[in-house]
Amino acid sequence: MLNLCNESVQSWHRLRAFVFIYPRNQIADGLVAKLLRCNVANFSYCMNVHPASNYNDLISNLEKFAIPIANKLSSIGSMGVELHLNHIVAEEVLIKVNEFKKWLEKTGLQVFSINNYPLIDFHQKIVKDKVYLPSWAHEERVQSTITCAKILAVILKKGQSASISTLAGAYRFHPEFTKVNLICENYLKAFRAIHELNQKNSIDITLALEPEPDTTLDTIDSVLNFFEEDLSVCAKQQNISMAEVKNVIGLNLDACHASVLFEKPEDLLMILHDKGINTFKYHITNAPVLQPPYTQDKIASFRKLNEPKYLHQTFAKKNGKIYKFKDLFEFPFDRCDEYDEVRTHYHVPLQLKDFSNLKTTNAEVVELLKASAKLPGNHNFVSETYTWPQHLESIEAKSFNLIDGIAQEVEWLMKTWQNINHK
Fold first, then answer.
1. In angstroms, rounded to a whole number, what is the distance separating the alpha carbons of residues 406 and 68?
2. What span, in angstroms and rounded, lies between the C-alpha atoms of 156 and 164?
3. In this structure, are residues 257 and 284 in contact, taking their beta carbons and an 8 Å threshold?
4. Measured between alpha carbons, how far is 131 from 384 in angstroms, rounded to an integer?
5. Residue 35 has pLDDT above 90, yes or no
6. Domains of the chain by range and CATH?
7. pTM of the entire structure?
8. Which of 31, 202, 211, 244 is 20 to 30 A from 340 in CA distance terms?
9. Burial degree of 129 (CB within 10 A; 0-12, 13-18, 19+)
10. Cis (ω within 30 of 0) for the bond into 292?
11. CA angle, residues 37, 41, 46, in degrees to nearest 5
């Protein structure tokens, strides 16, 4: 079989043109999807680091942060945009979508991703498990997702692709966690809407479920069970081809989430690839690690990460066995020596191998990039360090420029990817 993702750029443009000359029903959708995802690497940062409660806030953040950051990086590479849209902002953008499209064209910013978490205020005093509401057992989640897809259907040009990252099901400690069939039915509602938009507009919008500790999809085993059992059964009941579903519904693999679970990046990606589960996007994130010797200074630094705003699922390893803690405050700091290593869900700057006097999972971030480089298709990389204010407080930083901080992360990401692919 022709390996389309090894074709030259010129051949790729000829192939893509062919796809849109002939009616879509004459070409397998799987082939179309593959063609649309050939040999492209996109880079950005997630705009959930910036509070935005309406359309004007979104534009202000793009002007104040995204454009200056993209300009700083222009000598290295082109930076796209991952929008963060709650349901209110998403609805406002859809109302003004033609105006928004013209604004994007004027500025030259390319949206290749939307982070869609309907929670109105991701920067409120206490977020914790509210970030998982509404879950995929709720109709509001479906509608918010479809709203984002409709936005992309307008701003994307024919032949372009973009992904919507979303919650993987529901949160384990919420009652709807057990409503797996309803969750699957709602994913398929979103699938049908996105599939129709793709067909109508000759674009490639995908829905990227983000595995996260204590959600429906967290470990690789839970991911496989969901796709091969739960979602497949539901699709079969509705006479929907699971092959078509997998062309639209895949994963947004978050490096920090995988690392805190002690799952190895290369193993994850190879298993997913073998099972035909697409990784449409990567949230490139770095987690802090507490390792022996457990000095009081190290323990104090780790304890400082126990801040009240966000949920910090924590995992400890001892002789190969994993011990889990719902949040960092549940971890027994006075018994650290019972474990070989402790990791917590807390995003620290990508390029750091050391964070204060703690270690990080930076090496695993690099391994994830190396493993992804071996796979065909688009490579969409988004840094997602939304905890800048919290970690600056934890290290008692005196001053900080957010534009410089984010630019340094994305620069590291771009250069690391370039180095991997030039070896």
1. 11
2. 13
3. no
4. 15
5. no
6. 17-285+365-391 (3.20.20.150)
7. 0.91
8. 211
9. middle
10. no
11. 105
